[in-house]
Write a structure and sequence with these properties.
Elements lengths: L4 E8 L4 E2 L2 H6 E9 L7 E8 L5 H9 L7 E8 L2 E16 L7 E9 L19 H10 L6 E5 L21 H11 L3 E6 L6 E6 L8 E5 L10 E6 L5 E8 L6 E5 L11 E3 L5 E5 L7 H15 L3 E8 H4 L8 E5 L7 E13 L2 E10 L2 E3 L7
Parallel strand pairs: 8-10, 11-18, 13-16
Antiparallel strand pairs: 1-2, 1-5, 3-4, 3-19, 4-7, 5-6, 6-7, 9-10, 12-17, 13-14, 15-21, 17-20, 18-19, 19-20
Helix pairs in contact: 3-4
Amino acid sequence: MAKGFYLSLMVGPMVPVPVGQDVIDALTGVQVTVTSGARAQSGFQLTFNLSKRSPLETLFLVAGSSLPPIIRVILVATINGTPEVLIDGVVTRTDVSSGSESATSTLTVTGTDLTALMNWISFDGFPFPAMPPDVRVLLIIAKYAMFGLIPMVIPSVLIDIPIPTDRIPRQQGKDLEYIQSLADEVGYVFYLKPGPATGTSIAYWGPEIKVGVPQPALNVDMDAHTNVESLSFNYDAESAVLPIVYIQNQETKVIIPIPIPNITPLNPPLGIVPAIPKRIEPIDMTAKYSPIRAALIGLAKAAQTAEVVSASGSLDVLRYGRPLRARELVGVRGAGTAFDGLYYVKSVTHNIKRGEYKQSFSLTRNGLISTVPKVPV
């Protein structure tokens, strides 16, 4: 579509195949959104010009009403010879807007990642005797191996294995709902990451990792070195919260309040000066849980409310040199002492048109002033 990158589109039931040139020629716009968080779900939207003899009506409209109703879409962007799988998902909606006599109609195809498949059938009551949460998650993900899901499940360090003579855990709701509820119980996240090979996705269930090798720095107000189109910052000290969990002594029935700090292994410091919590938020429901489960819920809540520094902006991918990835670290330079340093990429939206590839993004971290003397260029 433009010098330096091109887009590959694969569509089909179950196993997608590359589309023909006429479909690529009709494609006018692509948007892919990737977010982080406990209930993250990626989505996409494709826009086509729809002529009367276009094969798109058969490809999306007719095929989408067949059995099984699974139309899978894979988008791969190749930049400077390096492929990047942007989305591997299924179509959830198609819209057609009719044009005037001189204008062609428009077909808009909307969908989400493969977690949509995990949200169709309810398995209420399915037993998991003597199985910790991570084993239950592995068994559920195994159902979707035919769609290329590869499990990456991290066992919790503070694990609570139910004894069969005491209770047998049973699934409540659909697979996606149950996996997300298990993640909430131990302060984890669950999401699908497409790739690395086309047609596969990593099903990650574990802590939200905010460490690792940072992506190339985002440069602002650095003349010829500037590689972002816009970047603005926000510091909201009022959003910091100190969670209080309650643990009940089983012998004396005395309830003990325990404050949870906002800097934890789930949320390492990316800023030297964190915000001091001005609000206390009791989590009353934890009194009925075991001490381990109550502590994990408190840790997850503390990590969610500690992100007091945020940034949002946009960039041209060709100038940046590669797509900015969500759920990873990135450096910022040229923004001043308070806001320079490492950030966690909370969300990214890919906007692709013919001859143009841009991204909008949002960043977060838990304090002012960088914890590192310099960031990778």
